[in-house]
TrEMBL record:
Gene name of the encoded protein: LOC118431425
Domain of life according to the entry: Eukaryota
Signal sequence range: none
Domain NADAR: 42-190, 211-359
SUPFAM superfamilies associated with the record: YbiA-like (SSF143990)
Protein name (database record): Uncharacterized protein LOC118431425
Pfam families documented for this protein: NADAR (PF08719)
Gene3D superfamilies: YbiA-like
Organism encoding this protein: Branchiostoma floridae (Florida lancelet)
C-alpha cells in the first residue's frame, strides 16, 4: 500500500510537471503569436503613407499632387461627373479635394465600394513607384502591418489613435483599416517584384526623380505664371526663349514670344532668333534657365512644394530625344536608372536639383506647411 501511495505521489508529481510544461508552452506560444504581428502606425499628412501626403505622380498623362487627389478624381470618373473631376484636378489642398469628392453627383455607395479599394491601390502603386524616397520608406516597413491610426475613420482606419492600447491588438480595433491593408499588400507585392534585382544596391547610392512632358511641374512647358523685371511669363520655356531673343537683340521675335502662350510655338519662335551664335548662347543658357526656374518655383507655392518634396534625389529629364537638357532616354528604359548609361547631359535636371538644394538651404517652404485632417 505504501509503495502504491508513493507511486501515486510520483505520478501526480510528473503529471503536474507535464501540465506546467504544457501551460508554459501554451503561454510561450501565445506570447509568440502576439509578437508575430507588428504594426507600423501612421496618420495625418506628414506620414508618407497618408493619402494627403504631398507626392507628385502621373497616371495616363495626368499629374496628381497626392493619392487623395487620384482617388477623388477617379470617384468623379466612375460617376461621370466631369465638372467636379476638373475642379479636383485644379485643387492641390487635400481637405478641399476630399470635400469636392463628397460633392460628386449620381453617387451610389454600393458602386463606389466595388471600385474604391482598387482605385486606392492603383493610385498608391503609382505614388510609391514614381517617388524613390517614398518607396524606400514603404519597403522599410517590411515585416509589419501598416495601420492607419485615425481615431475618426472606421473604414479606412482603425477608429483608434496609436496611443490607445486597443490599437495594438487587431481584435480590439474599431475600424477595418482598409488603407493600411492595401498598403501592406502593395508593399509585399513590390518587395516580391524587386527581389533579386541587381539594381537594388545601386538605388541606395543615387535616387532619381524622373520627369518629362508639360504635365510635370518640373517641365519647361508646365503652365506657371511668374514675373521677372515687370514682365509676366506663362512658363519657364517662354522666359528662356525671350531671354534668348534679348541676348541677340532680336526685339521683334522677343515680342512675338511674349504674345504667345503655346509652349511648342514659343520654342519654335526661339529657333527663329536672328544673329544667333551657338557659343554665345551656350555661355548664357544655363544661367537663364536657372533664373527662370527660380522665379517660377518661388512665386508658385504649390510648385515649390513639389520641388522640395524631391529632396535627396537627382531630378532627371527623361526625354528620349533630348541629349542636351535631358538624358536621351525614357524613364522606362533600364539605362535611365544608371547615370553611367545615360545618353544625354541632363542639364535641366542638374539645374533643378541645384536650385532645389539652394532653396532648401535658404529655408524655402518652411512657412508653407499646414496642418491636415483625417483623410479619405
Amino acid at each position: 500500500m505504501l509503495k502504491r501511495a508513493c507511486l501515486s505521489k510520483k505520478s501526480a508529481y510528473f503529471v503536474s510537471r507535464v501540465c506546467l510544461r504544457e501551460q508554459s508552452a501554451m503561454a510561450t506560444a501565445s506570447e509568440q503569436n502576439e509578437v508575430k504581428e507588428r504594426f507600423t502606425f501612421f496618420w495625418l499628412k506628414d506620414s508618407p503613407f497618408s493619402q494627403f501626403h504631398p507626392s507628385w505622380f502621373k497616371v495616363d498623362d495626368i499629374m496628381y499632387c497626392c493619392a487623395e487627389q487620384y482617388m477623388m478624381y477617379q470617384k468623379a470618373v466612375v460617376f461621370e461627373d466631369h465638372e467636379i473631376g476638373q475642379q479636383i484636378l485644379e485643387t492641390d489642398v487635400p481637405p478641399e479635394i476630399k470635400a469636392l469628392g463628397r460633392q460628386v453627383r449620381n453617387y451610389d455607395d454600393d458602386i463606389w465600394n466595388a471600385h474604391c479599394q482598387r482605385v486606392v491601390k492603383e493610385g498608391n502603386r503609382s505614388k510609391f513607384t514614381q517617388n524613390p524616397l517614398l518607396l524606400k520608406k514603404l519597403l522599410a516597413t517590411k515585416g509589419t502591418t501598416l495601420v492607419e491610426a485615425s481615431p475618426n475613420d472606421t473604414k479606412w482606419g482603425i477608429g483608434l489613435h496609436e496611443k490607445n492600447p486597443k490599437a495594438f491588438n487587431r481584435s480590439t480595433w474599431r475600424g477595418q483599416n482598409l488603407l493600411g491593408a492595401i498598403l501592406t499588400e502593395l508593399r509585399d507585392e513590390l518587395l516580391t517584384e524587386m527581389a533579386g534585382s541587381s539594381e537594388e544596391s545601386n538605388s541606395e547610392e543615387e535616387q532619381f526623380t524622373f520627369f518629362f512632358r508639360k504635365e510635370s511641374p518640373f517641365s519647361q512647358f508646365h503652365p506657371a505664371e511668374f514675373k521677372v523685371d515687370d514682365v509676366t511669363f506663362n512658363c519657364a520655356e517662354q522666359y528662356m526663349m525671350y531671354q534668348k531673343a534679348v541676348v541677340f537683340e532680336d526685339h521683334a521675335i522677343g515680342q512675338q514670344i511674349l504674345e504667345c502662350d503655346v509652349p511648342p510655338q514659343i520654342k519654335a519662335l526661339g529657333r527663329q532668333v536672328r544673329n544667333y551664335n551657338d557659343d554665345v548662347w551656350n555661355a548664357h543658357c544655363q544661367r537663364v534657365v536657372k533664373e527662370g526656374n527660380r522665379a517660377k518655383f518661388t512665386q508658385n507655392p504649390h510648385l515649390r512644394k513639389a520641388l522640395l518634396a524631391t529632396q535627396g534625389t537627382t531630378l532627371v529629364e527623361a526625354s528620349p530625344r533630348d541629349r542636351k537638357w535631358g538624358i536621351g532616354l525614357s524613364e522606362k528604359n533600364m539605362k535611365a536608372h544608371n547615370r553611367k548609361t545615360w545618353r544625354g547631359q541632363n542639364l535641366l535636371g542638374a539645374i533643378l536639383t541645384e536650385l532645389r538644394d539652394e532653396l532648401i538651404a535658404e529655408g524655402a517652404g518652411s512657412s508653407g506647411e499646414s496642418s491636415s485632417d483625417d483623410q479619405t
